[in-house]
Amino acid sequence: EGGIWYLAPDPCPTLLQGQAQLAQALVAHGFSPERQVYVPHVTLGRKVLFPEGHAPPKSLLRPIQARSEGARLFLSHRVDGQLRYDILQP
């Protein structure tokens, strides 16, 4: 129950190119890529519920400025029923 709240950037060719290169490198090392389309995002919350009569906006009306210090590769998995994100490459 509840929904997922996330932030997603405007289309970013550099980010998508980096993801495609990473996917190719992983395949070259024997990994099987996901079949779903890559959608860059930052998850803010899972199973988010709002009080009755209150709903979140479908999207933000103005951009949020953000910067990145670089890409990191994470493993998303569950441990004892809890979702964990472990950095695979520092």
Got a strand count?
A: 4
What gross morphology would you assign? globular
First and last CA, distance: 34 Å
Model regions low in confidence, pLDDT < 50 over at least 5 residues: none
What is the N-to-C succession of helices and strands?
A: EHEEE
Q: Strand portion, in percent?
A: 25-35%
Provide the gyration radius in Å: 16 Å
The average pLDDT score comes to 84
Give the strand order, joined by hyphens, for the main sheet.
1-2
Please, how many helices? 1
Structure class: alpha+beta
| Proportion of residues in helical segments | 10-25%
| Major sheet | 2 strands, antiparallel
Task: Give an overview of the whole structure.
The protein is an alpha+beta fold and 90 residues long. The chain contains 1 helix and 4 strands. It has one helix at residues 13-28; strands at residues 3-7, 42-48, 73-79, 82-89. A two-stranded antiparallel ribbon has the order 1-2. Strands 3-4 form a two-stranded antiparallel ribbon. The chain is globular.
In short:
With 90 residues, this protein is an alpha+beta fold. It has one helix at 13-28, and strands at residues 3-7, 42-48, 73-79, 82-89.
Helix and strand topology:
Layout: E1 3-7, H1 13-28, E2 42-48, E3 73-79, E4 82-89
Antiparallel strand pairs: 1-2, 3-4
